[in-house]
Description:
Blueprint: H1 3-28, H2 30-52, H3 57-120, H4 127-154, H5 159-175, H6 177-186, H7 193-231, H8 237-249, H9 256-268, H10 272-296, H11 305-319, H12 323-349
Amino acid sequence: MNRRLRLLIALLLTSVGIIVAARYAIQYLGPFLLALMFAAIIDPFVNLLEKKLPISRGFSVLLVLLLFVALLGLILFLLVTNLTAELTHFLSLLPRYSTYWEEWLRTLLYRIENLLLVIFNEIPAPIAEVVQPELDQVTDTLRKVVGWVLGSLSGLPNFGFTVIIASIATFFMSRDKRVFGEFFMGLVPKGWRPQAQHVKDEIANGIFGFLRSQLTLISLSGSLAVIGLTALRIRYAWLLGLLVALFDFLPLIGPRTIFVPMIFYYLFMGNIAYAVWLTVILGVILISRQLAEPRIIGAQMGLHPLTSLTAVYLGIRLLGASGFILGPLIMVVLKAIMVVIFIPAWKKEG
Length: 350
């Protein structure tokens, strides 16, 4: 068999193996994957504390981890409390909102029908009759989604046990990371160790860099959105801020997906002041992100935005909701393996 064909088959099998492993890892090793994420976040602060103060790495990890868990608990408390209140309020008013949207849409469709009559003299069927079932389906879908989210939020107190296990695992991962590294490298044959070390460095830098940078950036965008919307006394500020953070995670999409429709809505309603202030908030978020992004990300991840978007899409399709995060992480691992192993081997065959 041609060596290049064997390389392609090996790459395909490696990709499938990593995806299958990720599916089972998230199911059975959730706390330890969460611990890996925690370790990635606190590691720079642990290293800094270890260098600046005459204390052991273990004590540095303990101090930073306690502060991190306390901050995480406060953020989760605020998020769950406010989201539960906002979603419960939204669900109670959904029938009223549905009636409002229906009347607003009927007025809009009536104007469109009159315009079509002027242009074409006739229309095949009233547009409202075609659109009405879709509007009812959207309302029903919204009710189901909000119910599912509320159910998920009510189950978050049970998440505390997972966080405790993850925090303990984080302590040992961060404290003994050099010991773990030396142990695993000792399992690799000597002839393969340079390549294995290169792959390990690429994967560690890529994954840790991705987690730290993306969590920092989406936290920045979401926080600015919540502060701005709360200052304007816009209802569902926490929910909208969370959506801004989620959309900010998706390459090429960003906070505009939330803010631009809101700006046009207030313009349409004649509230020019709110539209201007929302534009200012969006501008602050975009400028802050542009200023922070080069310092935070640098060359840590090394994935093109289109590649990242593809990774998110395929991750969700193959792994469900967890693929939103795991997709890009798997792509980082595959990129490291390709750069270190497959591409050099491919070039040798050329």
